[in-house]
Every structure is written in structure tokens, then in C-alpha cells.
Write a structure and sequence with these properties.
By secondary structure, the chain is α/β, with parallel strands linked by helices. The protein is built from ten helices and six strands, in the order αβαβαβααβαααβαβα.
Length: about 260
């Protein structure tokens, strides 16, 4: 069997002072973007998915840090209740969708069914198949209603996930992040990879595409997600040099990236 080519190397991570300076400039751009969003009455929905310990919390925190809390919401739903389990699958997500002038960021979303629910046996095979049959139409409805839908998947290597989970266990300020699901993440690594790949294959479309983020380096991931987000929306005073993500860090999903190792196996 031919050996897969090594993925493109990461750029050197920025020094802390350079990272903080660039983050500050990008956050100014996000404020400009939000002013335009409010002026036009736009609706933006950003979905963050990825491996356990992939860096979703930290990335979202840097995006919303200086935005108006009245027009910015972060949604991180817990496990479904007994009532939720008897309802239409998307029903518990629908109340959190953005209204005019709002940006909503989902820290995990309905794609739980394509990942943790599938791998950990929290849904049936019939529920899993129904999800894939219905989610494209659901997302098309959102887009056609005028919602700007952006889907990010934060991808990390198995070694990096192991290091981050270990650090959480040792840090008393991060132990709240640990869960039994996190404890099974390394054991089920291949199962999660297979489920991720099927999710990409069945839910990546021209109307609702997936954007993959190589997130082994947290600083590079955060900066480039914000750059990519800024690049998608026009607003007055935009610094177009800042709104340009590194294509070696952030890129539109394609099957070839699984084959060449850019998406962690």
C-alpha cells in the first residue's frame, strides 16, 4: 500500500505579543462587522464542531469577547431531556436560531447525532439515517430564509488531543470541561474519524459547506478562524489584508484532504 503523503507543515506559531496584537486588530474588525450586521438586520449562524478538546471554547471566546452581548449569543446545549427525545430532532435547536441583527454561535449543534450520538450508541441506526436524510433540507431552509450559515470543524491530531485531555485533568480551573465522553475520546478515535468522514461526505454542499480548521496550534486556529469569518461578510472599513486566512490552516472540505492527511486520520 502506498504511503500517504505527509500533510503540509504548520507555520511557526506567533509569539505571544504578536498573537495578542493581531487578535486585537481582528477583534476590531469583528466589531465593524457587527455594526454592519445590526445596520442591515442580518442573521448569522456559526456552527463549531470538532474533536473533544479541539479548541471550540477558546475560539468562540475570542470571537465574542468584545461584541455586543445584546446581539451575540453562544448556544451550548446539554444532553437532551426525555421530552427532547420524543420531539422532532431539530426542535430544541430552532428556538436558538438568530433573529434580525443577531450573530449566534453554536458550540456543538445538531451534528451531535453524526458524532457522539453515533459513536457512543445514544441514537438508533434508524435515527442516524433519518438525520442524514433530513439535515440537508433543514439547512437549506435556514439559508433560504436569509440566515448566513457557516460551519467550522476544528480538527486535531490524536497526540494533541491526548495532551490536551491530560492537561485538563491536571488543571483545577479546567476540570469542569472533563466528562465521561471525553474519557472515551481516545479509545474511540477511529470510530470518531469514520463518523466525521461520513458526516462530511453526506452534509457538505454548495449551500451549506464545511470549513475545516487544523487546530493543533490554538493560536493559529483562533486567528485564522476569525480571518475566515471576516472574509465572508462585507462591511465598511474592512481591512482586507487582515481578512485573509492561511489556506494551510483553514480550507473548504474536500475528499482529497482526508487522503493526503490534511484532515487527521
Amino acid at each position: 500500500m502506498a504511503k500517504k503523503p505527509a500533510p503540509a507543515p504548520y507555520p511557526a506559531p506567533p509569539e505571544t505579543k504578536d498573537y495578542e496584537h493581531e487578535l486585537h486588530l481582528l477583534q476590531i474588525e469583528l466589531v465593524k462587522l457587527q455594526k454592519q450586521l445590526i445596520a442591515r438586520g442580518d442573521r448569522i449562524l456559526v456552527i463549531f464542531e470538532g474533536r473533544d478538546a479541539g479548541g471550540k471554547d477558546g475560539t468562540i471566546k475570542r470571537i465574542v469577547e468584545h461584541l455586543s452581548p445584546r446581539e451575540t449569543r453562544v448556544v451550548a446545549l446539554g444532553k437532551p431531556s426525555d421530552h427532547d427525545r420524543t420531539a422532532w430532532y431539530f426542535q430544541r435547536y430552532a428556538p436558538h436560531l438568530p433573529a434580525a441583527e443577531e450573530m449566534v454561535l453554536f458550540n456543538r449543534s445538531w451534528y451531535n447525532r453524526a458524532g457522539v450520538e453515533r459513536v457512543m450508541g445514544f441514537c438508533t441506526a434508524a435515527e442516524y439515517d433519518e438525520f442524514f436524510e433530513t439535515v440537508p433540507a433543514f439547512e437549506q431552509m435556514l439559508v433560504r430564509s436569509g440566515i448566513k450559515l457557516i460551519k467550522y470543524y476544528l480538527d486535531i491530531s490524536k497526540a494533541e488531543q491526548k495532551a490536551r485531555l491530560s492537561a485538563r485533568r491536571k488543571d483545577p480551573l479546567k476540570q469542569w470541561k472533563l466528562s465521561p465522553i471525553d474519557g472515551a475520546a481516545q479509545k474511540h478515535w477511529r470510530d470518531y474519524s469514520a463518523s466525521r468522514n461520513e458526516m462530511f461526505a453526506r452534509t457538505h454542499s454548495a449551500m451549506a459547506p464545511w470549513t475545516v480548521v487544523r487546530a493543533d496550534d490554538k493560536k493559529l486556529a483562533r486567528l485564522n478562524v476569525i480571518r475566515d469569518l471576516l472574509s465572508r461578510i462585507d462591511y465598511p472599513g474592512k481591512d482586507r489584508n487582515l481578512a485573509r486566512a492561511d489556506p494551510g490552516i483553514v480550507f473548504a472540505y474536500a475528499d482529497a484532504y482526508i487522503e493526503n492527511g490534511m484532515i487527521a486520520p
